[in-house]
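Pipeline run #58 for the internal structure catalog. This entry was flagged by the ingest filter as a single-chain record with no existing model, so it goes straight to prediction. Upstream metadata was stripped on purpose; only the residue string is passed forward. Reviewer on rotation: M.T. Logging verbosity set to normal.
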Amino acid sequence: MKIKDLPKTIKNRLSKTCSICGKDIKVVTYTNRTYRGGHYFFDIPICSKKEWDKTIKAGTFESDFHGLKMNVLKRDPKPYKHIEYWECPKCYWKG
């Protein structure tokens, strides 16, 4: 059974904040795991200054990606929380 075939009834009404303009977004979630009212992208990991210092001390190594040389961290910083990234329709369609 596909998600679009499930019954679409309102599960919850959420209030989120636009990450660009700070405007309040009214989001409606449905029982079939869809939503409307805003555009969700990903969770942003938030790390402490102390954790970034440990990561910088670990150093980097040089990697070759399709002829482009870049420095890659040897250690990823451990986040202590994640923040959701939402955009209101006005900011999303403005580009």
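catalog note: Residues 8-94 form one domain.
catalog note: The helical segments are 49-58, 89-94.
status: ready for reviewer M.T.
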